[in-house]
């Protein structure tokens, strides 16, 4: 029990390792946005063909999530994540041999999509739920911010590689980095506090871990969907996260660079702006996690979706060939708002079926997030090819964000973590 006296709870080590892994995953997932224009130039493929591969990648990124969460519960986090990293590396490496759009779909769309989906934000939710009672919202915010940090680090570098050394250098870099992360998972990520004779961070002395499910991983995922689907709150979260994915990963994450390029902005400059969104996403998401521990998550989501919708209405008028003040304002705000929705959504997911299945419930909600993203990635590519611009795509997403904002108060109110802690203190 010497570890129990350590000044640093091992949960924070788990957070650090998870952060690095999710950061890398974000880089892997966002790489196709850098490749759209280089692949157009190299092969003469249409933007809609390339966008379809991106859409399938995004779709599988989401659909795999609930099953990955269930597998983590049954077989352990480390095994699932190490296998996922190996899959990403294999798929990215195969990409260098492609000669046709269907091969891009098979490699980056299917193989890399399955690999990254197995490490998606359900990984963050699982680690936060296992290792933390206190500061769970903050930890979720930190881990969610890893995706933004990944964009910040990877996007400008990958864009530079694509323009300087060709698009294949992007694939080789992703394949190599995925392999490099595996030893860190094996050496430093522990499965749960009980493996070290500890309680989760902030847990009371009489805290009991949720009983493990006796169902198989597949049955657990399906049964969770079946049980969750009987609750109205699940469908509200489902729908709102569909809009969240549509308005972030699918639309801005995939098409911001080519849209800015359409307005005469160099690809590297547009990639830097998208990475800047990542800078402010880190700040916004961590702050959102802090807020989630203290305030009604429904109210937070109302403001996040509402303000996002208003900003998308303005986007067509603020894209230029150079960086202008209105563009910077959009980038800063959209960054702060990007995945600030995740911590309050995960908190609300815990109330659907209880803490035992919280990660799997969130896995299904996240799946619809990525279905929305996949539809947006493909739809926006088709709109651009049909109309010559993205305006209809921006306005459609804006309207849906406002609808999602209005739906938040249809959710059942739950006590905040701060209220629970206050009640526990009073009882003792």
CATH top level is Mainly Alpha
- Report the count of strand segments: 0
CATH architectural label: Up-down Bundle
Nearest-integer average pLDDT? 83
Helix content: over 70%
Strand content: under 5%
The gyration radius over C-alpha positions equals 21 Å
SSE string: HHHHHHHHHHHHHHHHH
Total separate domains:
1
What is the molecular shape? globular
Q: Which structural class do you get from the secondary structure elements?
A: mainly alpha
Largest sheet: none
Q: Quickly count the helices.
A: 17
Q: Give the termini distance in whole angstroms.
A: 25 Å
CATH topology, by name, is: Growth Hormone, Chain: A
Poorly predicted runs of 5 or more residues? 1-6
Q: CATH H level: which superfamily?
A: MFS general substrate transporter like domains
């Amino acid at each position: 029990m010497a570890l129990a006296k350590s000044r640093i709870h091992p949960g924070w080590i788990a957070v650090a390792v998870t952060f690095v892994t999710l950061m890398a995953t974000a880089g892997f997932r966002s790489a196709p946005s850098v490749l759209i224009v280089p692949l157009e130039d190299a092969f003469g493929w249409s933007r809609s063909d390339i966008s379809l591969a991106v859409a399938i990648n995004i779709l599988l990124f989401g659909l795999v999530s609930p099953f990955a969460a269930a597998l983590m519960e049954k077989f352990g986090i480390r095994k699932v994540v190490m296998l996922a990293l190996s899959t990403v590396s294999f798929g990215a490496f195969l990409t260098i041999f492609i000669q046709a759009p269907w091969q891009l779909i098979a490699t980056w769309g299917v193989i890399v999509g399955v690999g990254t989906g197995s490490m998606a934000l359900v990984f963050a939710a699982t680690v936060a739920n296992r290792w933390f009672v206190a500061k769970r919202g903050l930890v979720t915010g930190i881990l969610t911010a890893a995706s933004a940090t990944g964009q910040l680090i990877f996007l400008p570098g990958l864009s530079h590689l694509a323009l300087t050394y060709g698009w294949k250098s992007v694939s080789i870099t992703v394949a190599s980095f995925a392999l490099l992360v595996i030893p860190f998972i094996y050496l430093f990520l522990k499965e749960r506090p009980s493996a070290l004779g500890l309680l989760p961070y902030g847990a009371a002395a009489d805290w009991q871990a949720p009983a493990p499910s006796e169902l198989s991983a597949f049955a657990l995922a399906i049964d969770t969907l079946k049980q969750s689907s009987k609750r109205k709150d699940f469908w509200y979260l489902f729908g709102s996260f569909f809009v969240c994915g549509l308005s972030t990963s699918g639309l801005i994450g995939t098409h911001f660079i080519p849209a800015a390029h359409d307005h005469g902005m160099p690809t590297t400059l547009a990639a830097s702006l998208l990475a800047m969104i990542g800078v402010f996403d880190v700040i916004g998401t961590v702050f959102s996690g802090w807020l989630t521990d203290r305030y009604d998550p429904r109210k937070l989501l109302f403001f996040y979706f509402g303000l996002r919708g208003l900003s998308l209405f303005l986007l067509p008028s603020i894209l230029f060939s150079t960086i202008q003040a209105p563009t910077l304002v959009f980038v800063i705000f959209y960054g702060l708002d990007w995945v600030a929705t995740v911590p309050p959504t995960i908190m609300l997911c815990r109330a659907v079926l209880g803490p035992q299945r919280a990660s799997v419930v969130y896995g299904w909600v996240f799946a619809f997030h990525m279905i929305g993203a996949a539809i947006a990635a493909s739809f926006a590519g088709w709109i651009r090819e049909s109309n010559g611009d993205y305006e209809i795509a921006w306005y459609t997403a804006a309207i849906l964000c406002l609808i999602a904002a209005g739906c938040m108060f249809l959710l059942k109110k739950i006590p905040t973590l701060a209220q629970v802690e206050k009640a526990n203190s009073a009882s003792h």
